[in-house]
């Protein structure tokens, strides 16, 4: 405990004694405020932990459907046999054990913004003073007619949420005979993790180069160019994976034939040995059901000072589900940073104080382009009072000069640290 | 009676002053901690890192400020830090240095 903190608590207790002596009852000393957090990912788990650290008098309940968290970042390495999912998996035990967060492992059925409560599938409803919704994205598989049935979804995988699909995709790659084509389709931006598909292409290409050198990686991108770290990825594909990786921009997927593993594009059909479809995405359904979607029928608009929804009072939205400001990627690192701004703002608001008028957040995103070589993009984003949004600070963004093993060691360290920051 | 109400008013003034000073302390403390939380996504909880990224917990204040300034000026080589450091002000460097120098090295 810092001196400043001790001094603060001492002064607080003097005021508490004084306030009760004269019968003053301030909001801070009323019954403990209740905050419910939906979703224990990079945004929600971080917000829950930091809210308990910064506002110890607040009751925080985290609702999460899974017993363990599996990190998407670094999970592309599993495909190349360079990591195991277990290394990217963490339990939620420290949140109740060290920080006093109440964990509820359940499914949210509905949010009632009028009565301010969350209805659960199994447990009793949870009333809240403020609610944090960090639900991630839904993958819109139904938008691809050939992927509407369960059998087709077993053959054509997305593996865009780390877990069983990651392992299943790895098996498909192992089972594919040498000389085959792995095709990956990328939806129009915005989607979760902009550099992720290109990193995955590199991981599969690295694996092919070692073990199946006659095989190809075909990137079918609905966008007109590579959406992140473009110069670096393009360089790596031509320097290291020439004859393996082929990149095709403006290739929007319209449909698939799961039986023949055919991707149907506007002007051609492409047959693959392994077909990996990253579907279009939007904020998870609970956000839509609660009236939080305000942009393009897909994303939740928020006030960047507090991450409070622009549509619903006392409901804050974090992570991939929000309508981000320009150049704010949908990344785990960003969600972690949203969670901290929201936690600080809620801690202040529950004390009857104004939130920080000038929040700053940052992003660091590493991509593995081989077994050990890594590239990054980093940026700092500050609140612009006039524009009422986050803007990149002058000069504070950039890429690696070139891939390096040093950044590979940083990327592994980043993963361990951010997981400790949210769940440790 | 009159004297009692004057004394009551005095208590109220004193209380308001205390509440105001607690509010300011709370806001300052929270601002420092939430700014420092920018760094912990990479450098680990309270600046204690696992793995290759350097720990910054418990470093001395002047060392932290000098490093951040050198990253910002471009006089110290780095992979990501020269980009991050440009996003923060010198006053913020001081706040960050104050916070991380006060954290226990684990």
Could you explain how this protein is built, in words?
The complex is a heterodimer of chains A (424) and B (106). In chain A, 30% of the residues lie in helices and 28% in strands. In chain A, a hairpin with a 4-residue loop joins strand 21 and strand 22. In chain A, helix 2 runs parallel beside helix 10 and helix 2 packs across helix 11. Chain A folds into 2 domains: 184 residues, FAD/NAD(P)-binding domain, CATH 3.50.50; 137 residues, FAD/NAD(P)-binding domain (3-Layer(bba) Sandwich), CATH 3.50.50.60. In chain A, the strands form 9 sheets. In chain A, strands 5-2-1-9-23 form a 5-stranded parallel sheet, with helices on one face. With 424 residues, chain A is of the alpha/beta class. Chain B has 106 residues and is mainly alpha-helical. Chain B has a domain of 74 residues: Cytochrome Bc1 Complex, Chain D, domain 2 (Orthogonal Bundle). Helix content of chain B is 68%, strand content 0%. Chain B contains 4 helices and no strands. In chain B, helix 1 crosses helix 4 and helix 2 packs antiparallel against helix 4. The termini of chain B are far apart. The model of chain B has no long low-confidence stretch (mean pLDDT 90). The chains are: A alpha/beta (424), B mainly alpha (106).
Q: In terms of per-residue confidence, which ranges of chain A show pLDDT below 50 for 5 or more consecutive residues?
A: 12-29
Backbone CA Rg of chain B = 20 Å
Q: So what's the overall shape of chain A?
A: globular
Task: Name the pair of protein chains with the most residues at their interface, and give those residue counts.
Answer: A-B, 62 and 45 residues
Return the CATH architecture of the largest domain in chain A. Answer: 3-Layer(bba) Sandwich
Order of helices and strands of chain B: HHHH
């Amino acid at each position: 405990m810092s001196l400043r903190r001790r001094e603060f608590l001492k002064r607080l207790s003097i005021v508490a004694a004084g306030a009760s002596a004269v019968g003053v009852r301030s909001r801070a000393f009323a019954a403990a405020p209740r905050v419910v957090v939906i979703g224990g990912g990079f945004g929600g788990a971080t917000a829950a932990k930091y809210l308990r650290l910064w506002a110890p008098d607040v009751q925080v309940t985290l609702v999460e459907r899974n017993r363990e968290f599996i990190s998407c970042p670094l999970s592309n390495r599993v495909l190349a046999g360079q990591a195991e999912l277990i290394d990217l998996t963490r339990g939620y035990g420290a949140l109740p054990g060290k920080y006093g967060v109440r964990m509820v492992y359940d499914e949210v059925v509905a949010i009632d913004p009028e009565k301010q409560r969350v209805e659960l599938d199994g447990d009793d409803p949870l009333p809240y003073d403020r609610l944090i919704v960090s639900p991630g994205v839904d993958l819109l598989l139904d938008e691809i007619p050939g992927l509407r049935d369960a059998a087709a979804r077993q053959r054509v995988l997305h593996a865009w949420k780390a877990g069983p699909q990651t392992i299943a995709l790895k098996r498909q790659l192992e089972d594919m005979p040498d000389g085959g084509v792995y095709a990956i389709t990328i939806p129009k931006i915005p989607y979760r993790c902009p550099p992720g598909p290109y990193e995955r292409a590199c991981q599969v290409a690295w694996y092919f180069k070692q073990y199946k050198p006659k095989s190809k990686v075909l990137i079918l991108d609905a966008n007109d160019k590579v959406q992140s770290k473009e110069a670096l990825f393009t360089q790596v594909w031509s320097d290291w994976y020439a004859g393996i990786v082929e990149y095709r921009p403006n290739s929007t997927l319209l449909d698939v034939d799961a039986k023949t593993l055919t991707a149907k594009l506007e002007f051609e059909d492409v047959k693959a040995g392994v077909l990996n479809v990253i579907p279009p995405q939007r904020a998870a359904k609970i956000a839509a059901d609660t009236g939080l979607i305000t942009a393009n029928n897909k994303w939740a608009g928020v006030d960047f000072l507090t991450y409070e929804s622009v549509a619903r009072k006392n409901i804050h939205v974090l992570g991939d589900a929000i309508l981000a400001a320009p150049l704010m990627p949908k990344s785990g690192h960003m969600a972690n940073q949203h969670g901290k701004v929201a936690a600080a703002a809620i801690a202040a608001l529950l004390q009857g104080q104004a939130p920080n008028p000038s929040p700053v957040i940052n992003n660091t995103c590493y991509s593995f382009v081989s077994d050990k070589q890594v590239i990054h993009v980093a940026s700092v984003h500050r609140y612009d009072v006039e524009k009422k949004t986050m803007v990149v600070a002058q000069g504070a963004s950039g890429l690696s000069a070139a891939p390096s093993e040093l950044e590979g060691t940083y990327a592994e360290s980043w993963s361990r640290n951010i997981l400790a920051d949210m769940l440790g | 009676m009159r004297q009692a109400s004057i004394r009551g008013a005095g208590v109220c003034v004193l209380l308001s002053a205390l509440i105001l000073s607690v509010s300011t302390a709370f806001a300052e403390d929270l601002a420092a901690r939430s700014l420092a939380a920018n760094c912990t996504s990479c450098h680990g909880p309270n600046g204690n890192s696992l793995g290759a990224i350097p720990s910054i917990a418990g470093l001395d204040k002047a060392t932290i400020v000098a490093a951040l300034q050198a990253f910002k000026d471009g006089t110290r080589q780095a992979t990501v830090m020269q980009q991050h450091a440009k996003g923060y002000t010198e006053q913020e460097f001081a706040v960050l240095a104050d916070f991380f120098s006060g954290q226990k090295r684990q």
